[in-house]
Design a protein that fits this description.
- The chain has one domain.
- The protein is mainly α.
- It has two helices and no strands.
């Protein structure tokens, strides 16, 4: 490919928005999974402790 063809290819935006949205959704899903694995157990522990404290108020 010559330089002109590469420039035309870079300017071609047909179908890019769908692919970009899919990539963004995949990235969000991966970030969510990583965050849940990192903080999920800590959140569950905190919620259970808070629930125990609230139950103790009765």
């Amino acid at each position: 490919m010559n330089r002109n063809q590469l420039q035309q290819l870079a300017k071609d935006e047909d179908g890019l928005s769908t692919v970009e949205y899919i990539i963004i959704l995949i990235l969000i899903a991966v970030i969510g999974i990583v965050a849940w694995r990192a903080f999920g157990q800590a959140v569950v522990t905190e919620v259970n402790e808070a629930q125990g404290e609230i139950s103790g108020l009765n």
